[in-house]
Amino acid sequence: MARFVVRRLIAMVFVLFAVTIVTFLIFNVIPNGDPAVRMAGKIPTETNIAAIREEWGFNDNVLKQYGLMMKKVFTGDLQSYFTQLDVGEEIVRGLPATLSLAIGAAILWLMVSIVFGLYSAMRAGKVADRLLTILALIGISMPVFWIGALMNHYLGFELELFPNGGYVGLTENPIQWLYHMILPWTALSILFIGFYSRVLRSNVLDTINEDYVRTARAKGLSERRVMVRHVLRNSMIPIITLWGLDFGFVLGGGAILTETVFTLEGVGQYAAESISQLDQPPVVAVTLFGAFFIVLVNAIVDIAYAALDPRIRLEA
Amino acid sequence: MPADALLEVRDLHVSFRTEEGVIQAVDGVSFSLQRGEVLAVVGESGSGKSVTVGTLMGLTRSPNAKFEGEAWLRTGRDGDGGDDLELIGAGDEQLRRVRGDQIAMIFQDPMTSLNPVQRVGDQIVEQVQAHRDLGESEARNRAVEMLDRVGIPRAAERARSYPHEFSGGMRQRAMIAMAFSCEPDVLIADEPTTALDVTIQAQILRQISEMREEANAGVILVTHDLGVVAEVADRIAVMYGGQIVEHGTIDELFYDPQHPYTWGLLGSIARVDRDRPERLPAIEGLPPSLSDPPEGCRFRPRCPHAFEACHRLPALERRGGQSPEHVDRCFLSPDEKHSLREVGGQVGLAARSTAA
Fold first, then answer.
1. pTM (two decimals)
2. Contact B299, B311 (CB under 8 A)
């Protein structure tokens, strides 16, 4: 176990290192990637650009530039090229909205999927099951930016049932926080609910025919206990794994579109804005932030998997 | 059929609706089980033996299954017969209370019959608590005691192990411990040794036998292995095509078999006291289709001795048996049976081509 953790930590450092290199280098090859031209304003002059190049160190070799940026990342001195705002502060500012969205949506989609998946499996082949199957397919097929925009427009703007985007801090006003989060949570969850309930349904149908479920019945356990302790618990193991990975993904940037559609001003929206401005420092920092969560959650999921299924042994 | 039978099955029919039509898996099976005895139910795959015993436990219940007949469980726990329960028509909840408590079951494959992610001890605790009003620690003590009784070393420690940390034999021991944890009156063992090494088989059978004696339970042992039967059974019911074709004590079945199918089974046992043949004799042909069974005697299409009368279904009754309990479903006369079952100096089924 300790060996596993150490190995995973080392691997994590390598992955994150590679991520920074790739994101950094991309800016040296994409068109219009030269920040000096863009920083020089609407009517840039040659001397102006040259001065900016000199001042920000864009004339140094790539390795040195990379080193400087990484140093700034870890000392917290990283600044946006265009807004001149501190990148670290911006990320911290966006974090509550991003965490609210990811955690809330993850809980929502897991709970709803369990209910739908279990119900669907127990009614397999019946009308309710078929209906849920169709709903799941529709849910999987709808892109989040589209369903998000529709919800925002009809439920928020036209019917005024919900706020038209925006984020209110949880500590500031919990009721308003919840009120503002309902639509983003729902929009983000729909795809996952469709997917998870299908996976759970088939897992339950597989598990229900296992010999140990027959044993559980033969022991005289109540049907409820058989379903919960033997069928559902064993069917949930792969779901929990999937859930952890998807949570890491959503937290690490998978909710960029949702945040943008609902103007939550979280880390994802910050990332989207920085990308559209080709603002290298925040893009590198946000990518690193996202990758960190994804890698971290991956390691946690592996450990959790071994805890849930004793047959799994952790060998890195 | 004695009135004091612990379990009495009367004319049990089980059929399943499938896409290929209706499968008549069990077709008029009757037997009884006394306290303290081992009844072996023998037959090949698809003979209906597992469905028969699974039905007693209610494990074959499904929207596509149809049941007829009765199965009375008379544990006599309250002494006046008020405790009798008819298993086939019993409600789900009534049946749930009985299974694991008065009737317990051991399954064929101990590798898959235990929940892989639950500790072995917990799986026994769960059963004990389903039927006894015991606290966590009392139930746990019971589980450890049971594991100890079936010969699992360091039982308290092993109760915390997961099934994959047990060998196949140990898992089957754990299943036996579980089955006896609530002191059942009836134990159903469905091919309990089939999935195990030959060296372990005898140990497991002995274990079941010992536990049965201590609990004074009746055991139904389902198997296709007559070697297993010879070791522990008191009586044998031979099943073929969803019906019992011969039934008698172990001595009657082994030394005076009446039904050609029984001859075939006996003829195909590998025996250490005889020269090993080039190939073990097998019964020619295939088991009958259960959705479209042959007319008359179910064994007729494979039987080298079939004649005109076999197009009617023979009743299960005393024909050439030495005792009233030795019954079979074969129209051949006792003399014919005597002479026809001798094949090469021992009991067997003649090949079809050489039959008259």
1. 0.83
2. no
Q: What share of chain B is helix, strand, coil (3-state, %, to 5)?
A: 30, 20, 45
Place of tokens 């999937």: A242
Q: Which two tokens stand for residue B114?
A: 């235990």
Does residue B113 sit at the A interface (CB-CB below 8 Å)?
yes
The per-residue pLDDT string of chain A (316 residues; one tens digit each, 9 = 90 and over) reads: 788 888 888 989 999 999 999 999 988 888 777 788 878 777 878 888 888 888 888 888 888 889 999 999 889 889 888 888 999 999 999 999 999 999 999 999 999 999 999 999 999 889 999 999 999 999 999 988 899 999 988 998 888 888 888 898 888 899 999 999 999 999 999 999 999 999 999 999 999 999 999 999 999 999 999 999 999 999 999 999 899 999 999 988 888 999 999 999 999 999 999 998 889 999 999 999 999 998 999 888 888 888 888 888 766 4
Mutate one of B120, B127, B178, B222 to test the A interface: name it (highest A CB count within 10 A).
Answer: B127
B58, B92, B100 member nearest A219 (Cβ) = B100
Element containing residue A211 per DSSP (H, E):
helix A211-218
Residue B186 region, left (φ>0) first, then alpha (ψ -120 to 50), else beta? beta
Cα distance between residue A213 and residue A235, in whole Å: 12
B100: chain A residues, CB-CB within 8 Å: 218-221
- The encoded tokens of residue A96 equal 């509550």
Closest by CA to B6, choosing from B79, B74, B83, B99, is: B74
Does B96 contact A222 at a Cβ distance shorter than 8 Å?
A: yes
